[in-house]
Amino acid sequence: MIEQLMVKDYILFDYALIDFNTGLSVITGETGAGKSLLIDAISYLCGDRISSNIIRNGKEKCILQIVFSRPCQSICDQLEEDGFEIEDLIIVQRTIHKNGKSTVKLNRMNTTLSYIRSLMHQLMDIHSQMDTYQLMDEEVQLNLLDQYAKCTELKEKVKETYRIYNKDKKEYEKAKNETFSDDELDYITSCINEIQEMNIAENELETLQNQIKQANSFQKNIDDYNHAIYLLDCENGIIEKVYELNRILSKNSIFNQNVESEYFQLDALNEDLKHQRDQYQNEQFDIDALQEREYQIRKCFRKYGGSYSSMKNLYDSYMKKVDLILHRQDVFEKLEKKMSQSKKNYNLYADKLHHQRLSVIPSLCEKVEAHCKDLMLENARFKIDLNKKCDSSNGYDQVQFMVSMNPGQPFSLLKKSASGGELSRLMLALKVVFQADSTIETILFDEIDTGVSGKVAYAMGNKMHTLSKRYQVLCITHLASVACWADRHYRVYKETKEENTTTFIEELNKEQSIEELAVMATGNKDRQAIESARELKKRAHHG
To answer: Which pairs count as long-range contacts for 394-400, CB under 8 Å and 24+ apart, including other chains?
Structure first.
């Protein structure tokens, strides 16, 4: 869960440090005070891209930081496997500089926004009005159903078998629609013959280049061998002089040493150098032949794709075309059989996916309807239709959420049946159901109570408070009947001094919270408004 949020030099904030806890935390404040800025800051720390300047006027950089308590063991294991040190906390910090550069760190180590997005998706869920309206999208509905049905592994199987089937199908259709003239066959055949005659090995060009390099240095090496041998073995050379020196030293007793061993060593060196030179000369390369072969290989590569692998791929495709032309019916039958088998494999897993989705729908609808009743949608009925559509990487199901909001009203598509307030409540009911088995520990609701009021808003606050017994819940709201359910209440406000506007956030104590509820409900905090707010708070927490 979120332990702490810090912003520094962020738009209207000089500095703010907010400590959070378990339960339901509510953030309120007048319109324009800056509540949405905090949601945006959390979104940026979850990896969202920054589309405009968020650095406070006159400052060089902005720092955003969020601290999470230690998550579940599977996430910790993944983080440690990826090289991050995990103790009791996870700290994500994002720094944005005036020159446009930015950095993001996870536990003081640099990382990427894509990695942060992947991590945060497992830690928290941010839900706004826009997300509510996205619920009308059939792809979103499909993903929610699959999340509830725990279809992750099965969907990967469907995706992979569909990829293979789709490839086989395209290959069959391409072969079926291809036609070739005699001229094309002659050209393809000549290309095949040319590639075969060249008989190029996979790494032959690299080997040739090394041999050419050795051949170019051959003459210099031979010259060095000959020069060394000449210095040792020529008339009056090193060996002859050492021999004479040894003779002088040996015949006169005044010398107590000789160079006989050195003489034999030099003589052995001379023989060894001659042997190496002769071997080297026997292994010399025909540089003209090597360069000609290199030229022909490069010419062939240029003609057939630029590299050995490109030439090989082109050669294989030419061979398939020739096979298709000469053995057209046989090739069709092979491709059709291959496509038919991959379609059977796809159908096997697509059927399993369909039945797994189908199996959870009754319990899912029952749970959603139960939560709808808690949210004063007593007559709401909810069902999910699975209609067969064309094959895809997600299977062949078309998922449609259907609702009936009033007695006697037939089921119809969600986007055609629910008003804004009804949709908000339905989304909250779905959120409670779909999050039941996820790793997420924090849910943030950003003014999803728009379009509701009175008893309905009170019921939504109650549902969020119930949800907060399992998750940490943060809620941005403008309604007292929602805010009264808060375990912790924060107020965002702004002050202007000398044409400089600053936004602040403070945690309210019990009496301050009641005063804020009074202002939210009536616009003032006279005695009657305060008493009404106190009664609302008491009823929410004590019944």
So the answer is: 394/142, 394/155, 394/158, 394/159, 395/155, 395/158, 395/350, 395/353, 395/354, 396/350, 396/354, 397/142, 397/353, 397/354, 397/357, 398/138, 399/138, 399/141, 399/142, 399/145, 399/357, 400/138, 400/141
